[in-house]
Specification:
Structural class: mainly alpha
Strand content: under 5%
Number of helices: 4
Number of strands: 0
GO molecular function: oxidoreductase activity, acting on a sulfur group of donors, disulfide as acceptor
Number of domains: 1
Distance between the termini: 45 Å
Order of helices and strands: HHHH
Main location: secreted
GO cellular component, one term: extracellular region
Protein name: Gamma-interferon-inducible lysosomal thiol reductase
Helix content: 40-55%
InterPro entries: Interferon-induced_GILT
Radius of gyration: 16 Å
């Protein structure tokens, strides 16, 4: 799946699932998806050229390098810190179903 196709799926469905999931997008390489979405592209470009942008890029590189197993391609999808080919294929097929099927809720019993 192309990264831009996954970005479309995430952008469309995150509002539906935001109450049950924590989404972390780690930019990798020359991601040019921002122009497709209603985000302030000029502000993003200015940030990317600043010291703060360099600091953020370094933090994302550390997150990328810490993935276990190490990522082999982009996009690299993990659910609850786990990546498998089955997760990747299911995310491409039906991301909402995958999130709902793997959602773990803890019930506080009184």
């Amino acid at each position: 799946m192309r990264a831009s196709a996954l970005a479309d799926i995430l952008f469309t469905n995150f509002a539906k699932l935001s109450s049950i999931m924590n989404l972390t997008l780690v930019p990798y390489g020359n991601a040019h998806c921002a122009s497709k979405f209603p985000v302030p592209l000029e502000s993003i470009m200015n940030c990317s050229k600043s010291d703060y942008g360099n600091e953020l890029e370094h933090k994302m590189a550390l997150k990328t390098n810490a993935l276990q197993p190490p990522h082999g391609y982009v996009p690299w999808i993990t659910i609850n810190g786990v990546h498998t080919e089955a997760i990747e294929k299911e995310a491409e097929r039906d991301l909402v179903k995958l999130i709902c099927d793997t959602y773990k809720v803890s019930i506080n019993r009184v």
